[in-house]
Amino acid sequence: MQEVEGHTPAKSLKGAETEERWSGREQAERVFCGEERTESRIVFSAGEVVVYSARAPGKESSNEDAAAVVYIKDACTLLAVADGVGSQPSGAKAACVALEALCEVVRSSHPDADSAGTAILTAFDEANRAVMALGNRAATTLAIVEVRRREVRTYHAGDSGVLIFGGRGKVRLQTIAHSPVGYALEAGLLDESAAMEHEDRHIVSNVVGDPQLHVGVSSPVELRPRDTIVVASDGLFDNLYQDEVVEFLRRGSLRKSVRAAAEETQARMSVPVEGRPCKPDDLTLAAYRPSGRD
Q1: Reported confidence tier of residue 125, pLDDT bands at 50, 70, 90
Q2: How far apart are CA 145 and CA 294, in angstroms?
Q3: Of 52, 166, 247, 260, which sees the most CB atoms within 10 A?
């Protein structure tokens, strides 16, 4: 990442952990692609973000997940997670290309808070073209959260998802996975436990890299002072139940909460235990809280 005025470069904490502080007057970005394991905290005037990404336990090939944080002046922050699908190396490359497209659109269009949504939809189009150009049936999911002042809107394709909940655990928004199992869950044909154990859980109906791509866009949601936003790959949602994700992340230090959720998720991936989910996969999540929280 290039250094910009008012932006403090990342300082190493230990291993793959970093911390950065961004000035509210500058546009900045941070992309995490192909990381074996990384954990980063980014702090700015509007709030803080913690990103965690790691490849599946025991996996020797690249992490096919990627994440990005894009900061557009004081009023707007974008969080994005992509989960590459298909064989290596096309999956990992597709995820990175999609996030690079998002960053490039932001750089070239210089959107303000009121035009960020248009930039995001343009980025989906550009990402789709770029991923299709890779060939080899490359594809990726993509979930983006736009935090605009005290308002949140989500954009997604695939089964990477977004969850917004309050300090007491009330879920205020959950995206629908673009998959047969996701649609069945939303329709009430499956409960959460049956969905997590379903043999077709891995099938995704809508991806970046498909000429028929469509983007799911939510209605705006008011961001309250004690809210937490989580955008993550299915590595999180296939191994922790929704109420477990909420309980891990609704309170306490955001960094410690993200780390605890990630450690439990990877423990479940590593050691199957009857009665609890176990789906080894790459894991990426980005969690956001607004400033001024108690």
Answers
A1: very high
A2: 23
A3: 52
